[in-house]
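User: Could you walk me through two proteins back to back? I'd like the raw sequence and the structure tokens for each, with a short line separating them so I can tell where one ends and the next begins.

Assistant: Of course. Protein one, sequence then structure:
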Amino acid sequence: MKAICGSRAFLYTAVAAVTVLLLFMGISYAPSPQTLRSSIKSMTKPEPPKDRPTVPTYISASNTRNGEKLAYVSWLSSTVAGKDNEDLDKDLYFIGTRILVWQLLHYYKTKTKNIDVVIITTPDVSQSRIDRLRKDGAIVKPIEFVHGHNDSWLQPEQARWNGIMSKLRAWQMTEYSRILMLDGDMILQSNLDGIFDDPGAQILKTKQNIEHPSDENDLPDEYLLASMGEVESPKHDYPPDWDHGLKKPGKFCAGFFMLKPSDKIFDYYTGLLDIPGRFNPDFMEQNLLNYAHRWEGPMPWREIAYTWNIRSVNENDFNMGVVSIHEKWWENPWSGSKRVKDFFMSIRWQMEGFYQARDMLSAQGHEP
């Protein structure tokens, strides 16, 4: 059975390069299932580079995932592309979300084991996008926007962030014990599952000896917010730290973080929306979360290893094996690395080839 599953995975990726080439040449080609399957007969699973350093994954003595229901969650809105724009091949954030789903569910180097992959979508996301993501294998959960009763003071730095508070809906997904929240513009180099065993990614007790403002809603007895500081530029050490490459000590990036769902903490967050000036609204949910989980407060966020994710990646990060990269795959990396850019595009087209091959088999009445 393992051999069959492996053959199918290679079947999809084997036709990626041919599919893309034919697309660029404008040639329509529909090979038979037998032709597709025969293309993998001489292929063997490629080995990773011998000189690639091992990335620590902090596997604990006892499996902390035992008995837990875990999820990878990403948020998708159409505030950039527009709800009525049905040219899905040009919706870059949507393509990025598809890439993330493919990496987590299907790509042999990065796919998860027994962890759900969920995309939460705002009301302005078209049904065609929802259908495509479900066909790709994701669990899609449509959500409502999040607003306070008195939140007119919330004016983000960019208008396209107006609906971004809806990311807070992830805390209402109480069917999961822990969730890793990822922005859609993530590219993985290796498997992320070990992050749930990182010492910083464990549930904590709320500190009862720190004063809590009386105009805010009650806090939960326990919580989890684990993340990492954002790098200031591509010029940083690997892994970066507060003395060598990170900016704004005590501030984390809300593009990659671990959380514990809780209705009570969701109510606490939404209550903050009704207190004008309680946090700087320029970066909306990121600044709300940084206030709620400030290091001097009762629910301080914890750091996880900086080998899990880096923004503004440079070639050294890439060579050292950073597990995931927070960059817009369609743009040149800030570092200017052609090698990193080529890797992004390779992943993008492998995803396209995989799904086109699978769709082709399905259209011909064959189980992918």
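----
Protein two, same layout:
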Amino acid sequence: MRDLRCVRSLFRGFCTTTAVSDLAGTAPFHDYYVMLHSQNPPQEFPKVISSQVQKALQLALTSSNGLVNFSWSPQQRPPPLPSSLEEEVYSATAFSKAGNVIELDGLTLSNVQATVQRITSPGSAAQPSDSAHPLYIYVCTHAKRDCRCGETGGLVAEAFRQEIDRRNLTSVVKLGETGHVGGHKYAANVLIYPKGEWLGCVTPGDVSNILDKALESRALDWNPSTTPPPVPSHWRGRMGLGKEHQLALAAAHHS
């Protein structure tokens, strides 16, 4: 039987928040975000993912305010082949509040500490300073964690996929699906990196406008503390900002 929360949220028009203005300040504080590349889409993830590498990397990044998740896309680099059946090996994409994007290969339990040093080291990767750098858009579609993410997130991910294909933007926009990001009631949740914008209550009808605003933001003179939210009506927050700062920025640009 379908979860009643799913039926109710779809009947009400996707998002179950009482007002879109409730969204601001709900993005978790983080200075780094790491997406471990999965071989399977989040629709197939178990409710709770068991991964020694993910747990060790999350623990090692906690003091640096880092978060670790899983992402899937047909276009992203698959994980390398392990040397044994017991070994976990990942490719990954890491983002920092400084705007750095770091592509990682061969991430295993044995090199977690070296990986953290690489991610958090200043100047470890080139900062994307021009509009040629790709956008990374992630949609939470972790169905077994919460059906609202699976159903509404799945519809939004497909809408993004169609819009990106229609505009011939596959070389500019990298679309991925993710595991649990927090905030089931804000489904569909959309994360836009490398600048780390978090959006909630997104519907397929919002996708075209969000894509427009995300592309426009690439050319902005960027200041994470003062740059206006790209889509204020759906903005949950931004990487590098705490709750109070997110709320203040949202209030300053509320229309």
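The radius of gyration is 17 Å.

Let me know if you want the two compared in more detail.
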